[in-house]
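Exercise: predict the fold of this chain.
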Amino acid sequence: MSTLPRIAKSKAKPLVSEDELPSFLKSSSESEEEEEEWEPKSKVASKRRLPKKPESKPKKAASPRSTVIRKRTRKTAVKEEPNVSLPIAADEDSKDGLKLLQPKEDGDPKPKTRPKKPKMPQGTKINVSQGKMNNLDSDEIPSTSTPLMENEVKQEKYEDFTFDEPPLKRIKSTTCPQGKPVKHPGSTKHQEELEMNWDIVQVLSERTNIEPWVCANIICLFRDENTIPFIARYRKELVNNLEADALREVQQTLEELRTVAKKTHATIQKIKKEGKLSGGLLAALLNCKTLDELDHVSAPYKTGSKGTKAQRAKQLGLEPAAISLIENPVELSLFSYIKPNVKGLTTIQEVETGIQHILADMFAKDKDTLDFIRTLCQQRYICIQSALAKVSSKNVNEKDVNKFQLYQNFSCNIKNIQHHQILAINRGENLKILTVKVNVPDGVKNEFCRWCVNERWRPKRYAKPELMKILHNSVEDSYKRLIYPLLCREFRSKLTSDAEKESIMMFGRNLRQLLLTSPVRGRTLMGVDPGYKHGCKLAIISPTSQILHTDVVYLHSGQGFREAEKIRRLLAHYNCSTVVIGNGTACRETEAYFADLIMKKYFAPLDVVYCIVSEAGASIYSVSPEASKEMPDLDPNLRSAVSIARRVQDPLAELVKIEPKHIGVGMYQHDVSQTLLKATLDSVVEECVSFVGVDINICSEILLRHIAGLNANRAKNIIEWREKNGPFISREQLKEVKGLGPKSFQQCAGFIRFNQEYIRTFCSNQQTELAAEGHALMAKADVQVTSEKRGKKKSKPAANIAVWPNPLDQTCIHPESYDIAKRFLTLIGGNPNAIGKPDMQQKVNAVIQKEGIEGAAKILNTTVHTLQIIIDGLTQPEGFDIRTDFDKPDFKRSIVCLEDLSIGTVLTGKVENATLFGVFVDIGVVY
């Protein structure tokens, strides 16, 4: 990213200004009386989905030239690739309030002037009848990866709303030779559908620790329904090279903020209908940034609420007395408020109590007061304590109690406590085994009370001792009944939220490592699902994952010698030398059985090896509808053996069939938000499948669903198109699939692969057959047909003849960058048919060494990120797989016992699971 956006200022409707409000209404804190202890929630609200924008279709009717240009101006401006990356800004003219702004030139004296009438770039044609522009790139996909020509079309309605700001300064760096505009982060704003009193870009930047201009771009990219894999690979310049995990974190935080805004406005409408909405309450609600703050402010106005003690005192008319105690205590006479016939005002003590409740509520809602106590807590030692519940021994199993032995007398500073400790404490509390308390030292209370009485809430004039006593009691009551419970809830809510997010992120990282395990190609494998009573299930699969044979053997019931002969015959018949054993029940016994036969060279002349693989989720998959559809004639018990073998042959293709949470590589996965967990794991699966890529002509429907931009219906339509029309020849043919529009094509095209050798063979055979049929038909008809008439009567098979393979389709280069790739090939003197060959690598290296990647990008008028993707796509060998350098299965021929170990022995272990408190490694030692 090389520019900082100039954002349009939102024209929000003016609300009640804070200067006109009482100080206690400028904040948001808990006003409910005697709040219950905080309890961790097992579920959270579901994520709010982004609204989809209707895609406008071009009109077919002819229209004047100027009209066509005006309609296509904004779209073309977004499509072309600028010399530097384009920032995101709000614009009232655009439909969704956003557009990509071009950076101003240095020293522009008139930042608010409109540009001249847009001109069309050279070499661009306008089809007036269709209303579309045709060029070398995709004419439907907005892009930031295509070159910006000198005569590029500029936005017709361009306005610069950066009032009272100096021109941008440009600072050159090695990563941005063109110079990066520098602006104050505070000028980056973004207009949301639901307006709040805070800027969503600034809050998002503070919570994720990412620059505001990057956050503004990410918001726009997500609003335009871009997927995380697409952004992470093809929009790096807009997100400052963020990884997928960081983008996922920003997306989750953005959804949380939008959920707060949505619930806030729903609450405002509800209170407004009841006629209880005041200016101060409206401002307090619009200031809320979290759901806890919103619940705190809106609690007294919930349906069925009996009202707080302060509200009941106000109904008795004691609010003027409370305000007078602070503003003008000299003129306050408490006896004038005594009314013997009114309950709550019969004695002077009841009047004092009512005033005390009103003052306590004022203190608990005052922003300055809450800021002071929060700052004070950050400077002091605040600890969280857990102890064994008194009733746990009666109602809970003793084994469950022993699991929480570490936390039966536990205390830790909230700044140092680990995430897994928080999750463990919460689980114990939910099971009623532990009681949890946040301990705030008494020194905090004493200093807070002194500050309130002597500074913040000190009476403006002299107050009598009895009035000062009421003030002291009000401060203590506010702290004990309202502020302290609020602090405890805030501390625990923040700790739990952070722990859940870290647990989910850890699950995602483990899942990614498992999915990206290096596949074992070109081997015939025997999968073994171990078992005792019901035997071990066997399945032999070919190098192309076809099921060759299935069987059941009973290795642990006294028939091991007889079954060994059957296994030897099967291995010899199918020339199989690799055995894959599931790590379930009877795994170690089955491993010892095969290791003993291998050591005795029972399977000679085959050199048999074996490995252990996780079978988590195999049983669930074996009875799933997908397994029944894929293997309809196979017993469910044997399907698990097939799944175990395929997990070694192609882990990604097999594991995507299983719901991620059943794979079992997480930590406290049942204690976190299941909605957030599912969304994160599905996103990780989509990321892995997309980055690896799929061959569109051989991949399964299940695998295709997880490509960025596709879903179950689109994947089904692609398979149906393939079965009806034959294999896909180029990426452009994806546009012919039903339900796959321009946006879906943009998101998925870069992750689709084509086997060029297979495509060339298919096209050659098809051309020969169709040519023979054409000659026969022409001879039979004995009619000479002109080329124009043939064009009018072109059939679908004839249309396929015109589609020829594109060598770039086998690479990771996006179709929107094909024109740049062709110009780069011209620059280096390369041939598209030599992609992935050593000669191409040499030519690329020669140009990069001479010009440098920044210089080459400047020559091509593109960005370094886009050029790097092009270089990778041209130099990677055909069939390149990013999983090649990842972990591989550990094949063994024997087992290791404790007696075999000695000082200096080196063992190879496999990481089974990684958690926040340690790593589980299987080193294969039997004890």
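Check your answer against the key: The CA atoms of residues 621 and 627 lie 6 Å apart.
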